[in-house]
Fold:
Amino acid sequence: MASLACLSASCWRILAVRRISLCAYTSSLLGSIPNPQVTSNAFLHHDVAAPTREVEQRKNFLLKTPKGTHDADPKQMAIREKVFSIVLNCFKRHGAEGIDTPVFELKETLIGKYGEDSKLIYDLKDQGGEQLSLRYDLTVPFARYLAMNKISHIKRYQISKVYRRDNPGRGRYREFYQCDFDIAGHYDPLLPDAECLKIMYEILSELELGGFLIKVNDRRLLYGILITCGVPDAKFRTVCTSIDKLGKVPWDKVKSEMIEEKGLSPETVDRVGEYIRLNGGLALLEHLWDDSVVSQNSVAMEALKDLKLLHHYLEIFGVADKVSFDLGLARGLDYYTGVIYEAVLVDNPQDNYTDRITEFGSIAAGGRYDDLVGMFDAKGRKVPCVGISIGIERILSMAEKKAEESFKNMRTTETQVLVASAQPHYVEERMKLITMLWNCGIKAEMLHKKNPKLLSQLQYCERTGIPLVAIIGEQELKDGVVKLRDVATREEVNIPRDYLVEEIQKWTS
Structure:
């Protein structure tokens, strides 16, 4: 027992010496590290509570997309691609060429172009000495692009995302796509404007969203009416912002805003209200032409003359039946100078549309902006422009709702054929066959299993909507054929391997 006690004492002395040496070595090692007290404490006394805090933080973190944004799942992407295809084909059919601009611009490029909506611009932190902002729309960057590159004539399209620090609602987001078509250059009056309205008509018709009407006005006509009604010139733009809410909110609220916030007298607002609630066709233009108040203003009369010519062109294009002249259309953005328009969905196009606008509101808009490019040109050279913008997010919301109501299985891929095998151990042969199909431009898939069951492969086709199965096995390889199966009808036919691509193209065309 004595020797055991001696041994134990000896062991303890050795451990104690080694512990002192280890602590001394650790202290010298940490001496070269900044703030060694914190580091050594963390090293010598492991903080076992840290992982617990991290777990708690993860539990309290709400995993979601930022406010006003959303993810798109495969079905939504399939709908989006179809809608974009319709829009893009229409733009190209009218001879447009594509451009792209940065997602952010110098802040100075954007400020002063959007009126009261400028408060919705997203500002970024100083980046290397430059004050930047996310683009609010595609129009102002396009005007900057024209001035910077000294372009005087172009017919362009652009489909890109824009950003607005808005309060998102139904069909509205802070990050969303715009699909723009614009014509820049000096041309004879109203011909480019008429083509833009024709494009809007074609796209909305092809999308089959339901009844729609295109409201048309002219900022010059609205200006002339407001001036003759007693609105000061300096308040024209801010009053337009109030008028632009008409149709979204009742007239009484618009009237109160113009009196209480814009400082107009009740008598002036009542006179304005008599005009801005008017809408109609060519008969309305004729009525205004003879109106004793409107006829006093030369700017308004010039606008009426242009609107009559526009109506004539729209009749030739076959669009006039979907157009209604609306004196309450203002388009609150500052850069519009002439004809403006906005498309709305309606429950019944034959009724008075002001009472029949659906909950989605405006789905496309645009107009003429002849002075915007000159604001960026050092010599103030003007390039007249007119364009449209398709409100794609609202259209996508409606298209998704329509797809859900149709109870149809929507394909999220364009795969034409699945390469399958009826027996095991043919993965390499499947790989050889699918390589041939891919190299010939066929959209093909194969299951990533070495020995999948044939039933599983056929069920995958039914689930994903793949129309054809190319089946290979021992006998097919001996005969130099591929068994091509129609998934829907279950019809099967042996196709010589050299003619397989041609046969698949026939079946899926």
